[in-house]
């Protein structure tokens, strides 16, 4: 738990004799202490073990705006002494999801009323039930602000009265006696805003184990990257209608401050473009496998992270025809390829990659740079966009020899996620753009992955995925990686460092 002059508290779980797992948003300013074996926050107890924090390591892909990856490891200043009041909470063996209606419980020392600065003096517990993410995302609940995705668990009590709240952030969520999640955010006791917990997925579990095993080489992330709960989406979790815990939660930690798969991409329903009218387009060839990209500097191409390139893959600039010899063509090879570090192939989040060319391109009327957008603003539904590529022109058809373009319209994420479309498999999140035609027939498809999405003359996204064998189907519009502020910052920083 983290208590800062009565303003903030956090909780955590002892997952190793030297390590506590908590939430990344927990503010650790003021040189907080970690107390193990505690039941009361107000007086020293027989089993208390007090530590300072040697290292604080947030999950490297934690996003304070979307609450993605809201977990953090704290290395204790000394080894914990295990006894009947202090024990390690085992991590789950798998990162399996938790099914709706599963019974869970969470404990903490947080406040017992929403927006209250008064925290519980003793450890309390509340029983919760997991809610379907589709319900949590609907208009009556979070309404995609933020998106409750497959890396999160939504859980609350009956009638909304039982919940975690301010001060319970970082508390472990226990479901069927298995450690499944870490308390992240919510609006205490609000039936429309159940508590949200970071699901301990396979990806997160691997990071936890690797970090603990290689702690000596792990860097400490700046405190500036950490923020507290945003009140517009709910404060950190607190116990409401909870009961006092009579037995110790042996793995609980209190922090007190000393002082204050089947996807595709290609052009469906498009038309040939005027030769060399899109001089920023780049053709990526690895044998018979095609991808596209955009030239964003004379020696850098931006494409999709899932596009696999080899040392001998061809990177062709100035092409109109895929197969013909054209004097305008400049053929390069990859010197270096750098996928966005938080790319997740399972959720398709942040599907972008930078490819450094083995030599600089010659800029002319046939080969030109596509400027990055100045900001990472979202693209509103109904916005008209274009995407080009050399991909297939129909399901199970061969790829196009010449560059084609199709007009697509931005579709609201709520529609893309509903039962008639992607049905949350995967979740189309705020870092993605959904675009196509609700009547079908206009889409990108196999071979267009990495192509730039141009909306109102601006580079706004990167072609990522659609449903395999269903390109142009109205149920499965194309999905594009939105060039957000964090993506743009990474692109600029990566190119700058590589000089």
From TrEMBL:
Any one of the GO BP annotations: proteolysis
GO molecular function: serine-type endopeptidase activity
A family per Pfam: Trypsin
Membrane spanning stretches: none
InterPro entries found in the cross-reference section: Peptidase_S1_PA, Peptidase_S1_PA_chymotrypsin, Peptidase_S1A, Trypsin_dom, TRYPSIN_HIS, TRYPSIN_SER
Family classification: Belongs to the peptidase S1 family. Snake venom subfamily.
Name used for this protein in its record: Granzyme A
The species this protein was found in: Galemys pyrenaicus
């Amino acid at each position: 738990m983290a208590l800062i002059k009565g303003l903030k508290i956090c909780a955590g779980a002892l997952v190793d004799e030297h390590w506590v797992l908590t939430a990344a948003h927990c503010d650790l300013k003021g040189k907080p202490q970690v107390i193990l074996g505690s039941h009361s926050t107000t007086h020293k107890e027989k089993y208390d073990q007090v530590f300072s924090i040697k290292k604080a390591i947030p999950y490297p892909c934690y996003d304070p705006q979307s609450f993605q990856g809201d977990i953090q490891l704290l290395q204790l200043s000394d080894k914990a002494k295990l006894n009947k009041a202090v024990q390690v909470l085992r991590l789950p063996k798998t990162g399996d999801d938790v099914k709706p209606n599963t019974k869970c419980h969470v404990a903490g020392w947080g406040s017992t009323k929403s927006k209250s600065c008064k925290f519980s003096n003793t450890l309390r517990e509340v029983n919760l039930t997991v809610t379907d993410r589709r319900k949590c995302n609907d208009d009556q609940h979070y309404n995609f602000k933020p998106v409750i995705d497959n890396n999160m668990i939504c859980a609350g009590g009956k009638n909304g009265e039982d919940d975690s709240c301010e001060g319970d952030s970082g508390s472990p969520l226990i479901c069927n006696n298995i450690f499944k999640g870490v308390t992240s955010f919510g609006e205490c006791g609000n039936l429309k805003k159940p508590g949200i917990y970071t699901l301990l997925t396979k990806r997160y579990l691997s990071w936890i184990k690797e970090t603990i095993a290689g702690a000596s080489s792990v860097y400490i992330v700046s405190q500036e990257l950490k923020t507290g709960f945003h009140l517009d989406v709910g404060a950190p979790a607190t116990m409401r209608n909870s009961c006092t815990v009579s037995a110790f939660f042996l793995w609980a930690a209190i922090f007190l401050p000393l002082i204050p798969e089947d996807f595709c991409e290609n052009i469906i329903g498009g038309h040939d473009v005027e030769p060399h009218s899109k001089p920023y387009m780049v053709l990526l060839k690895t044998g018979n496998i095609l991808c596209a990209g955009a030239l964003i500097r004379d020696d850098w191409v931006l494409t999709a992270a899932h596009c696999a390139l080899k040392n001998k893959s061809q990177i062709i600039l100035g092409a109109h025809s895929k197969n013909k010899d054209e004097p305008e063509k400049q053929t390069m090879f990859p010197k270096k390829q750098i996928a966005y570090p938080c790319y997740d192939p399972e959720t398709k989040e942040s599907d972008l990659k930078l490819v450094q060319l083995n030599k600089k391109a010659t800029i002319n009327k046939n080969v030109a740079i596509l400027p990055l957008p100045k900001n990472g603003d979202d693209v509103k539904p109904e916005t008209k966009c274009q995407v080009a590529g050399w991909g297939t022109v129909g399901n199970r058809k061969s790829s196009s020899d010449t560059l084609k373009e199709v007009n697509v319209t931005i579709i609201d994420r709520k529609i893309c996620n509903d039962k008639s479309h992607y049905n949350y498999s995967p979740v189309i999140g705020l870092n993605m753009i959904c675009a196509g035609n609700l009547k079908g027939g206009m889409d990108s498809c196999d071979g267009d992955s990495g192509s730039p999405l141009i909306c109102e003359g601006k580079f706004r996204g990167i072609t990522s995925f659609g449903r395999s064998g269903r390109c142009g189907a109205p149920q499965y519009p194309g999905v594009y990686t939105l060039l957000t502020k964090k993506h743009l910052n990474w692109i600029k920083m990566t190119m700058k460092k590589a000089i």
